[in-house]
Write a structure and sequence with these properties.
Number of strands: 71
Helix content: 10-25%
Number of helices: 20
Mean pLDDT: 75
Largest sheet: 16 strands, mixed
Structural class: alpha+beta
Distance between the termini: 65 Å
Low-confidence stretches: 264-279, 507-517, 629-634, 748-758, 793-805, 835-843, 1010-1030, 1086-1091, 1097-1208
Length: 1208
């Protein structure tokens, strides 16, 4: 019917919103050859359609800005589409309510809806924020606008003239005109030749004459590009109180304005006139007043001050900030620490001599920079100390000291004997401005615990928090909420809920990165913290402490708004706990949090047993709390989650009754779930499903593994077949270990099948689509690093969009370079018969095959010198590094697509497996993580907005309002108890799925980067944790990891079922490879780990004993003198402590799951060494000395360690 053959070259660039330039996407013209045809297939009556694409070498280069732009375009279109649909739905309702009487106006109203939607997706505006003290006039293309002091005025540039009447949007090098802005300040014109060139550039100083200086810079925010015009002194309010600001001029104070309290962030919104009131948290001291104070002939500049005042409920409290001379500002800026701290005492003015004035103390941080030879000063108003509630429950804070304020909340209760009580909600803070050297607090639960387990005010007594610039809490203070009786007396059983008070200190190492920011990053914060948190997903358990030193007692539990579940305050991870099941009164075996797996739920959770050692049907797992990021604390809070082993989710449309083998009944509404108190691992579960509303049920079903099964539903009175239903068992997530999902009741089929035939043009054609790529090169760029080979942005402007064959220049440095050789994708569709019928019988005969082959893959790390380092590569030229083949058949009447073969080969030719090189270092991984983090954070600005559309009946127009959406990760169960089931809309029956054996040659270089971590303080083992995170160097050299093949047959289910099988298999395989990794690991810091003063960093004899001695608090000599069991015990404890250190370190940097695995392996090594050494006697030290220089050799020399490591 047709035959097409075309050859073309393609050029492509993308617009980088950061550089405001078109950056090259294709570094060279991309030549492709396309052949397409459709005609009669030889020897058949069917049509044959072919598409053959042959690509010549292609070179692609892009940064994360391309991904961000694509995300922004997608979100913009999605927002426009959703807003248009909402508006049209409103119009449909209006038209229906008026019986179509205004149908003639419907097209006009639809146009209004479309216009309202487009108004929400316009380009980001520009603006001028004025903090200079003058009224600014700025000129944009001949249009003048005013910006009064203390306001932000928005504007936009008109589009350039197009070929017709209207304008034309142009970007980057296509823009022929400059975005010029003339800023007029006190008759002095400051010209910005091209606004986009000044974005995120360093601040500049501009002289107005007569020793007056203003400062300007252009910052691109998430909502607009703002020109900041400020005086040389700016006041930032980082408190929750409003302060009036005045300046002393000629012995009188001139009012400046109000520096408003810091509020929660909100979306930038403009008024109809384009003006926007200032947020108020920043105020600029007027340039004219500063000139009068520092440069007037009558003043010397030695007695310049700012007056700040706060109106409390009773009086006006006033304080004075003495400003140094200009020369002193210059000295501060050039000193080692450009930030100075001091405190200002504010007091009330009272005419009564006998009355005691009110006093409050403010902390002032002064940050000075030199800009073009002139000082630029930032003054930060801060509380003396901020007290944060990190306990995740409501707390009462009682103090007799004045001047304490809840941040952004009013909730004080006057006491009979004086003082105040504050109600601190989770993650809320209390600001302290009290005078004196200390402030005392007592704390108590604000809510009544579940089960009437009462607790009194905190012990030991009042807690003193030091105040002042140089005072701080040197160590954490351990406290508890003691249990009390109904009368308030201490309980005779003793006990209480533990917590601690700790100061969160800022490291001085981060100061240089914060100098140019608008936050001082130096405020003192004291936090109320807990050791661990229990989260009960069942609402049926209470935790009990069963420490051997005291009588068991029940811990307090509360209903949490943050978790939407019941939570409990738990003690330290090494203390024993047990759980009380309220419905049955049964108790579990004692356990500690250290015994529970660090996981994210599902199959990795730990099974819990009753005290008679039978299965309880419940599981537990621990995870690092998501609220650690909000707390900004060094304490890594662990959450212990209690989940059911099985939940049953009703995905049908009818209420069901579940009956288990013991006769227990559960009623599950449609779309809801219920817990089944049984375990699936040992003997499985047997359930009967009864549709109580229509009088039919299934026979008892045996469920003992994950997968999909179909059962018949029969009428209860007659026994006749009513229909069928699908039951799928999958691995759970955060809510359960397993999920049994009940599908809807069907009249004989598992899935809906469309009876109406499809009318696709190529539906009955034989197909052959093939893409052959000789070579493809992809270069990843890092926007945080400039391309040093490009001296001028005009060099990019000239070369980009040119048609020559010269490689184009990019603005950014390379981070990675990937080369794919001989990349082929092939898709074929054929029919078993040769008929032309389009009946459904014919459709079942279709066979498809999808194949993808990559001959070679080479990934290069471009962050290193000498032209880069190989990260991924294949060592053989005979095998393909990647081969994927999938053969399928069309879905039949049951709606299940058959997969005859799913085959994956990685550098394997069915005869042998060649090695795939994996060679990297920590710096390269951090570079990729930085790029991913920046991309994700930038994309959140686009994805967290929805619209609210309303119809104004008076003006007959739409009002569209932007609303923020929550970007927090959602769990599988929402607040209403609805279960979000995994995707199951596609069902597959896989006949054979196999992954051929694969071999990796792994090398890794540990390169600690100090700036990546925060020093961990005030927690047990902090010194060891800090060592591992910052100082310990290790190298994995040529670890040969060989993974055996994976094969399954006759598996039926959705895609996630197949993924679970592969993931579970290779997770267990990876655990078995830990020994191989340890054998190839060498530690380069034995000198510091062993605590030696002499020798080099390498291993020398006796280091293992010195290390064990250091970790257990004993000397190496003491351990050497011990024989037999003593040495064995010492080594076991020592290695276990190393394992705990690794786990704590990994949790501190967010990779706790990996750390837990290392912990098990290292602790297992210690137990193996100890068990082997026990009973050896005097020859112990010789045996240990001969262990070798690396961890692998140490393990290799002791057989018991190998067994326990492999088991772990």
């Amino acid at each position: 019917i047709f035959h097409v053959h075309t050859n073309t070259n393609i050029l492509a660039d993308y617009f980088d919103s950061n550089t405001k330039l078109w950056e090259p996407f294709l570094l060279k013209p991309w030549e492709i050859d396309i052949k397409a045809s459709r005609g009669k297939k030889q020897g058949s009556k069917r049509m044959m359609t072919t598409l053959d694409v042959e690509s010549h070498p292609c070179q692609v280069s892009f940064s994360e800005q391309l991904l961000i732009s694509l995300r922004g375009a997608s979100s913009m279109w999605s927002l426009y589409s959703k807003t248009s649909k909402k508006a049209l739905d409103i119009l449909d309702d209006i038209n229906a309510s008026m019986n179509g009487s205004r149908k003639s106006l419907f097209p006009f109203m639809k146009a209004k809806a479309s216009f309202s939607a487009r108004a929400m997706t316009t380009t980001m505006p520009y603006g001028v924020e004025n903090r200079s003290g003058y009224t600014i006039i700025f000129d944009v293309n001949g249009k003048k606008q005013q910006s009064p002091d203390g306001t932000t005025t928005l504007f936009s540039f008109p589009p350039s003239q197009g070929d017709g009447i209207g304008g034309c949007r142009t970007y980057g090098q296509d823009t022929t005109y400059k975005k010029q802005v003339d800023v007029l300040v006190d008759d002095q014109c400051i010209r910005i030749a091209h606004l986009d060139d000044e974005i995120n550039q360093p601040m500049k100083a501009h002289q107005l004459g007569n020793n007056r200086t203003i400062f300007m810079n252009v910052i691109k925010t998430g909502k607009a590009t703002i020109i900041y015009v400020t005086s040389f002194i700016n006041l930032y309010n980082e408190t929750s109180l409003d302060f009036s600001v005045s300046m002393k001029v000629e012995n009188s104070f001139q009012p400046i304005g109000i520096c408003a309290a810091q509020k929660s962030s909100s979306i930038l919104r403009a008024t109809k006139t384009g003006d926007m009131k200032s947020k108020g948290t920043v105020i600029g001291i007027p340039t004219a007043l500063l000139h009068s104070a520092y440069h007037s002939h009558d003043l010397t500049g030695d007695n310049v001050s700012l007056q700040i005042s706060h109106d409390s409920k009773t009086t006006n409290i006033i304080g004075e900030i003495q400003l140094p001379p200009l020369k002193s500002f210059n000295k501060i800026a050039t000193s080692k620490s450009p930030m100075k701290h001091f405190e200002v005492v504010c007091s009330s003015a009272t005419q009564n001599k006998n009355a005691t004035p009110e006093r409050m103390v403010l902390k002032i941080c002064c940050l000075v920079e030199i800009v073009d030879g002139y000082p630029f000063v930032k003054l930060f108003l801060q509380p003396r100390v901020t007290l944060v509630n990190n306990m995740l429950i409501n707390i009462l804070a009682k103090t007799s000291m004045p001047q304490t304020y809840l941040k952004g909340v009013e909730g004080e209760l006057d006491l009979v004997r004086g003082g105040v009580i504050h109600r601190l909600e989770p993650l809320h803070s209390l600001e302290i401005y009290s005078p004196g050297h200390f402030v005392s607090f007592s704390f108590k639960f604000a809510d009544n615990p579940v089960g009437d387990v009462r607790a009194g005010w905190s012990k030991p007594g009042s807690i003193d928090i030091p105040l002042g610039i140089r005072n701080c809490m040197e160590s954490r203070l351990d406290c508890c909420f003691p249990f009390v009786t109904a009368s308030g007396e201490d309980s005779k059983f003793g006990g209480g809920c533990e917590f601690f008070v700790s100061e969160i200190s800022d490291t001085e190492e981060s100061l240089p990165d914060e100098i140019t920011s608008n936050s001082s990053s130096s405020s003192r914060t004291v936090a109320l913290c807990i050791e661990n948190l229990g989260v009960d997903h069942t609402s049926n358990f209470l935790f009990e402490s069963c420490d051997v030193k005291s009588q068991p007692y029940t811990l307090s539990s509360f209903s949490s708004q943050l978790h939407q579940r019941r939570i409990s305050l738990l003690p330290a991870s090494n203390k024993l706990l047990r759980m009380l099941h309220l419905p049955t009164g049964r108790r579990t075996l004692p356990f500690s949090i250290n015994d529970i797996a660090l996981a994210s739920g599902g199959i990795e959770s730990t099974s819990i047993k009753w005290n008679d050692k039978t299965e309880s049907g419940f599981c537990a797992y621990k995870m690092i709390s998501d609220h650690n990021q909000l707390q900004h604390t060094s304490n890594n809070l662990l959450e212990l989650h209690i989940i059911p082993s099985i939940i049953i989710y009703n995905g049908g449309h009818l209420k069901v009754r579940i009956v288990d083998a013991s006769g227990n009944e559960l009623i599950v509404d449609k779309g809801k779930f219920s817990c089944l108190q049984q375990s699936l691992e040992e003997t499985g579960v047997t359930i009967l499903i009864d549709f109580i509303e229509i009088g039919c049920a299934t026979s008892p079903l045996r469920i003992n593994k994950t997968g999909l099964q179909v059962t018949v539903v029969k009428s209860t009175p007659t026994g006749s077949i009513i229909g069928s239903m699908a039951i799928q068992t999958i691995i759970g997530a955060k809510d359960s270990r397993y999920v049994i999902k009940l599908g809807p009741l069907k009249d004989g089929n598992v899935a809906n099948v469309k009876d109406s035939p499809s009318h696709s043009l190529l539906e009955n054609d034989c197909l052959r689509f093939r893409v052959r790529w000789s070579q493809m090169e992809v270069t990843f760029l890092d926007t945080s690093k400039k391309n040093n080979s490009v001296s001028d942005r005009n060099e990019i402007s000239q070369k980009t969009l040119s048609n020559d064959s010269v490689k184009k220049s990019t603005s950014y440095a390379k981070v990675a370079h990937m080369i794919l050789n001989r990349f082929t994708v092939d898709y074929q569709k054929a029919f078993k018969d040769n008929t032309v019928s389009i009946s459904r019988t014919s459709e079942k005969c279709a066979r498809s095959q999808f194949a993808m082959i990559i001959k070679g893959l080479h990934l290069i790390d471009c962050t290193t010198a000498l032209g880069g380092t190989t990260v991924i590569a294949s060592t053989s030229k005979e095998t393909n590094i990647f081969e994927l083949c999938v053969r399928t058949r069309d879905a039949g009447d049951m709606g299940v697509r058959t997969v005859d073969l799913l085959e994956l080969k990685l550098a394997n030719n069915k005869k042998h497996s060649d090695e795939i090189i994996l060679n990297t270092n920590e710096a390269f991984l951090w570079s990729l993580l930085d790029i991913a983090s920046r991309t994700k954070n930038a994309s959140l600005d686009f994805g967290g907005i929805d619209t609210l559309v309303k119809w104004n009946t008076e003006t007959e127009t739409f009002t569209v309002e932007a609303i923020d959406l929550s970007t927090e990760p959602q769990e599988n169960i929402d607040e209403e108890g609805n279960y979000r089931s995994p995707r199951t809309d596609s069902l597959y029956a896989i006949k054979n799925a196999c992954v051929w054996p694969t071999t990796f040659l792994v090398s890794f270089k540990r390169q600690p980067q100090t700036s990546r971590y925060q020093k961990v303080k005030n927690i047990r083992g902090a010194k060891l944790v800090d060592y591992f995170t910052k100082k310990l160097n290790f190298t994995i050299s040529s670890a040969r990891l060989k993974f055996s093949g994976f094969q399954v047959t006759n598996v039926k289910g959705p895609p996630d079922r197949i993924i679970e099988l592969v993931q579970t298999f290779y997770t267990s395989q990876m655990k078995m490879k830990l020994l191989t990794l340890l054998s190839a690991t060498s530690i380069d810091e034995w000198k510091q780990l062993a605590g030696r003063d002499d020798g080099d960093k390498g291993f020398i004899e006796g280091d293992i004993l010195r290390t064990a001695g250091n970790l257990t608090g004993k000397s190496a000599g003491f351990l050497v003198k011990k024989v037999g069991e003593g040495v064995g015990l010492g080594l076991t404890i020592g290695a276990s402590e190393v394992g705990n250190g690794i786990q704590n370190m990994s949790e501190a940097i967010g990779i706790g799951a990996v750390g837990a695995g290392v912990n098990s392996a290292v602790s297992g090594i210690g137990d193996g060494v100890g068990s082997t050494v026990q009973g050896v006697g005097e020859g112990t030290s010789k045996l240990i000395k001969g262990a070798g220089k690396g961890v692998g050799q140490i393990v290799g020399g002791v057989g018991g360690g190998i067994m326990l490591t492999a088991k772990g």
